[in-house]
Write a structure and sequence with these properties.
This protein has 444 residues and is α+β, with helices and mostly antiparallel strands. It has 14 helices and 7 strands. It has 4 domains: 92 residues, no CATH class; 175 residues, no CATH class; 129 residues, no CATH class; 30 residues, no CATH class. The strands form 2 sheets. Strands 1, 2, 3, 4 and 5 form a 5-stranded antiparallel β-sheet that branches.
């Protein structure tokens, strides 16, 4: 028993290394960093220093140095207050010497990839078209210059400013969807037969404006990556609802009412996404699960309608629109109390897609041996079941690890109304059993 108690004490006494700066980026101060920060001038042959956490209120600072050819260590006990002061000191000196080290640029790579793809995929050929360049040599040169500028200009502009995942996400979202919004605006103002150059120019202006606006909004309101993702999900589904509405209303794609409804649908979706993000704390992974559930809700009803052999295309559009809204509502509900990682959210989406392909494959193989059923119905049904099965399988796999642990309190209050009813009915009288109504525990 004594040996067991001793081993348990040793486990509880284990120390955990903690970051030395407030941003959590530095765990070890080596000789090179010490030359810049000058935190330990009293050690002539300084080697390294780190901090370990002993308990919530006690830390140890260990400093290694050399003297007379031997490696020595000094160990200092720090209270929580002294530990916080030391970390603050390290952070301030680091910011003064290395301003860029203090910047949060976790989303910069994603932003630069997005702007480069936009430049190569749209701006590169849009600029020659807008400028009415016909010479092939000039066209190729302008395309290459524009494509390269899509990387170097934002690279230079973001060199010394923070770029979070939320800022990059909304910027890239605005840059891509802004193309379509710009073209819709040109249709709204000029109606049918809008000149191609004018529409392309409007798309480019919309892309640049919305990309910049998305970045500024995310920065101003300090949005998290989860909120940015949910807003983008809402915008996409809102645009889809707007597009479906124009189909139901028999509007021409080039008409002013069609453009207006699509723009309003996209704007309403963005607003809906912001409201949805306020209902709970979203992560990027949660938003991925939400998007997958919305897509599943939009697709699954199509199998039912096709099985009923409905010939009206508007019915397909209507049930898909309603199904997407139901899917988003269910998705918002099933991610409550969860913190899915980005990888988990992506895997849920891929699993749904793969399940749909697998189900469609099985349906196609079985079509040769099943008579009396239309091929489209068989494929719709099997792929819908496959997508739903893929989603549920991946969600079930990840939901336990993604569950947020409930915050525990020192006080434990247990109210038992059923015992109150039992006592009122006289079941507790003349009995050796007790019926506690309220139980309060406080562990010391």
């Amino acid at each position: 028993m004594i040996l067991l108690i001793g081993s348990i004490s040793e486990i509880k006494a284990q120390e955990v290394q903690v970051p030395i700066d407030e941003e959590g980026k530095i765990k070890v101060i080596d000789r090179e960093l010490e030359r810049e920060l000058n935190l330990f001038p009293e050690y002539e042959n300084f080697q390294k220093a780190w901090i370990f956490k002993v308990s919530d209120t006690l830390y140890t600072l260990e400093v290694f140095y050399q003297s007379k050819g031997e490696l020595l260590k000094s160990r200092f006990l720090l209270s929580k207050e002294k530990f916080d002061n030391f970390r603050h000191k390290v952070t301030q000196r680091k910011k003064a010497l290395f301003p860029r080290m203090a910047l949060n640029q976790e989303g910069r790579v994603e932003l630069l990839v997005g702007t480069t793809v936009l430049s190569l995929g749209y701006y590169g050929w849009a600029v020659p078209l807008i400028c009415d360049v016909e010479d092939s040599k000039e066209l190729v040169a302008l395309y290459m210059l524009t494509g390269g500028s899509g990387f170097f200009i934002p690279f230079w502009m973001t060199e010394n400013i923070p770029v979070s995942y939320a800022e990059s996400r909304l910027s890239v979202y605005g840059g891509t969807r802004g193309i379509l919004h710009g073209i819709l605006f040109s249709n709204l103002f000029y109606g049918k037969g809008v000149e191609e150059r004018r529409a392309v120019a409007a798309g480019m202006v919309g892309s640049l404006l919305e990309g910049t606006t998305g970045f500024v909004i995310a920065h101003k309101f300090k949005m998290s990556s989860g909120i940015a993702e949910v807003i983008s999900v809402g915008g996409d589904f809102g645009l889809g609802i707007g597009w479906g509405t124009t189909i139901l209303a028999d509007f021409s794609n080039e008409s002013r009412p069609s453009a207006l409804i699509k723009l309003l649908g996209s704007a309403g979706g963005l607003f809906f996404g912001k409201i949805l993000s306020n209902t709970q704390e979203y992560t990027k992974g949660d938003a991925g699960v939400l998007r997958a559930m919305g897509l599943l809700g939009a697709y699954t009803p199509l199998a039912i309608v096709d099985a009923l052999e409905v010939d009206n295309d508007k019915i397909y559009t209507a049930v898909s629109m309603v199904g997407s809204l139901i899917g988003l509502g269910l998705g918002n509900n099933i991610v409550k109390g969860k913190d899915f990682t980005t990888a988990q959210g992506s895997l849920v989406t891929l699993s749904s897609f793969a399940g749909g392909l697998f189900g469609a494959g099985l349906g196609y193989v079985a079509s040769g041996s099943i008579s009396g059923v239309r091929l489209s119905t068989l494929l719709f049904t099997s792929s819908a079941f496959g997508a739903a099965g893929g989603f549920w399988l991946s969600y079930k796999t990840f939901r336990k690890t993604a569950k947020i642990p409930e915050e525990s309190s020192s006080w434990n209050i247990d109210l038992r109304p059923m015992n109150l009813i039992a006592l009122a009915m006289g079941k507790g009288k003349n009995s050796a059993m007790t019926f506690p109504i309220l139980e309060v525990n406080y562990p010391f």
